Amino acid sequence: MTPTDQTVREALRHGFFITLEGGEGAGKSTQARILSNRLVGLGYDTLTTREPGGSPGAERLRDVLLSGAVAPLGPAAEAILFSAARIDHLDKTIRPALAQGCVVICDRFADSTRAYQGALGNLDPRLIGALETVTVGPTKPDLTLMLDLPAEVGLDRANSRRMSGPVDRFEAENLSFHRGLRQTFLEIAAAEPHRCKVIDAMQSPEDVSEQIWRVVEGRLTSGTKPGRIPAVGNVISLPTVRRGVEAL
Ligand code: T5A
């Protein structure tokens, strides 16, 4: 499979939007990097980005959110701020890259708001649904890779990577919160089986990346990608998007 194949070219006319989701330390950043390198090696225009963040404005909101400064205002305030960051990220980074036919790989996206603020914050699903409608609109992921592993294992991995550094706002939540996250991500995947694919994240990074590649390759070559309706007001030139460039 290469971008010169007719089916793949057609599928990438509106870009291809991949999100990685899962609990803390599931290996999302590691796999985003491996996948990006693989696609770039095959000649795909690829943009790797993350949430919260991914654009200068959203990165500023990331610092505020992960510092815990918004936590006392409650999960609704956090959900609204994550959504504000997402609007900027979509407008400045994701939609322009998709419009150029890029494969966009995003480390976390709207499913994280559904899980962390919605399900675990006990927010009214109508609020989360409404926020998602106005922020994401038609720019839904074509494929979501749910990296699944027991919460304890993910937290151990996150702890060893951080070493003695401080835990952030969400890592500091208790184990039952993190177990609830895992359950919620699995429920989201079960409810949207066409978009979501559960990946066994307990395996070695190499084996996880092979699972992911089988799925991505299958989707890119199937030519069954639903056409995306371009969002109004997002015709932004993006001179910085080129092969393999990171958003940050
Ligand atoms: N959040 C985010 C919300 O509450 N609502 C939202 O809407 C959004 C978008 C972001 C936080 O914001 C919250 C969720 C998060 O708490 P973050 O710093 O971006 O915080 O962190 P996370 O997204 O949680 O990601 P992590 O940094 O915790 O972990 P990753 O990216 O899943 O894991 P990774 O790749 O960094 O790996 C962690 C360690 O494990 C090793 C790696 O080398 C690394 O040391 N590792 C493995 N070890 C063994 N086997 C494997 N297969 C491994 N894969 C990686």
Account of the 3D structure:
The structure is a single chain. This protein has a 5-stranded parallel β-sheet with strand order 2-3-1-4-5, with helices on both faces. The chain is of the alpha/beta class and 248 residues long. The protein is globular and about 50 Å long. It contains 9 helices and 5 strands; from the N terminus they run H-E-H-E-H-H-E-H-H-E-H-H-E-H. It has helices at residues 6-11, 28-41, 56-67, 75-99, 110-119, 125-136, 151-162, 175-191, 205-222; strands at 16-22, 46-50, 103-107, 143-148, 196-200. Helix 3 packs antiparallel against helix 4. The longest helix is centred in the middle third of the chain and has 25 residues, at 75-99. The protein has one domain (17-220): 3-Layer(aba) Sandwich (Rossmann fold), CATH 3.40.50.300. Helices cover 51% and strands 11% of the residues. It binds P1-(5'-adenosyl)P5-(5'-thymidyl)pentaphosphate. P1-(5'-adenosyl)P5-(5'-thymidyl)pentaphosphate is lined by residues 24-30, 51-52, 66, 82, 108, 112-113, 116-117, 157-158, 161, 168, 170, 204-205, 208.
